[in-house]
Each structure stands twice: as C-alpha cells, then as structure tokens.
C-alpha cells in the first residue's frame, strides 16, 4: 500500500498505478457533479465548456453563497459546505463520463458497482472513498470555486474547484478489478449464509 500525491490532471498511466488500499491526496483542481448534471449531459444532450479530461469528479451538491460582481463579469460563488453524496445512483453514467469527458477519478461515498468496475478496467479509472460526515473537513480542502457551468441546475451544477491537499482519500476501486466494496459485500453474504445455516433457516 502506498500514498500518492496527484497534481491534476493525470493520465492513464498514473491512474493505473493506483491500487485498492492505497491513499491519495489531490492537488490543483476538482470538479463537482451530481445526478442532475449527469442526466442533462448524457440523457438530454447538454455539453459543458469546462475541460474534465484527466481530472477527478466528486459526487456533491454543495452549499455555496453567491458573490455578485460587476455586470460585465459572471457571478461567482464561495463555498460554505461541500460534502459528498452516495455514488451508487450515478452508476449508469460512469462509462459515458470517462469516454466522452475523459474523467479519470470518481470521489464519493459507498462505492459503485460492476458497470463502473468494468469501465475502470477498460478505460483506466479509480474510485476514492470519503467517510460520511466529513463535509466540514472536505470544505477546508477547497480554496476557491473557480467556475460553474449549467448553473440553472444549482446546486447540482457542474462546479470547478481549486483545491489544496484534498485528502488523504482511500482507493476502494481500481483499474485492475479490485473493489473493497465487492469484497465487503461477499464477506457479509457469506457470513449471513453461515448464520442462517447454523439456525436451520432458509434464505
């Protein structure tokens, strides 16, 4: 197990160096994305002017405060609380997000499933897990909201964050077929079957 500090963006070689059990700290840039963003991008055909190639996305719908600027400039936002949401509902979009936008890393809670695992193996990607309830800590790793696209979806817009020392985060899915989530699910299923058998109960 190793620790990796990654200056974003990264390439396929770098993400394939990550293994389940490693830890990662991200620097420079991170993008916030959530259900509505993905639905609009991939089911409704919207495109983004932001460049996600080689970057990480975090499953989030942040609490922010709008900072009004002169009329010639776009509105800006400051982060108030940037937490992480459960990732499994966004399983359907992983391959498209990687193929079309070039995303390399997904950050979230609870892990993802076999479709995501296949996409990571085929295209080169990894999942980094955050412990639930750590939003206050995560927010300290966000230096600035640099940009936002599709802000009609607020708070499920596409956010561009400038970050510093975002981590350490745990690699729980890698590009080599490793998945801590699948391992835990198997252990739990085996133990459940053993307990039921011990008391003569059926599944």
TrEMBL record:
Enzyme class: lyase
Record has Cytoplasm as a keyword: no
InterPro entries xref list: Fe-S_hydro-lyase_TtdB-typ_cat (IPR004647), Fe-S_hydroAse_TtdB_cat_sf (IPR036660)
Catalyses which reaction(s): (2R,3R)-tartrate = oxaloacetate + H2O
Residue ranges of domain Fe-S hydro-lyase tartrate dehydratase beta-type catalytic in the record: 6-183
Enzyme Commission code: 4.2.1.32
A Pfam family matched in the record: Fumerase_C
Keyword hit for Ribonucleoprotein: no
Gene3D superfamilies according to UniProt: Fe-S hydro-lyase, tartrate dehydratase beta-type, catalytic domain
Keywords of this entry: Lyase
One Gene Ontology MF term: L(+)-tartrate dehydratase activity
Protein family according to the UniProt entry: Belongs to the class-I fumarase family.
Subunit structure: Heterotetramer of two alpha and two beta subunits.
Name under which the protein is recorded: L(+)-tartrate dehydratase subunit beta
Species per Swiss-Prot/TrEMBL record: Variibacter gotjawalensis
Lineage of the organism: Bacteria, Pseudomonadati, Pseudomonadota, Alphaproteobacteria, Hyphomicrobiales
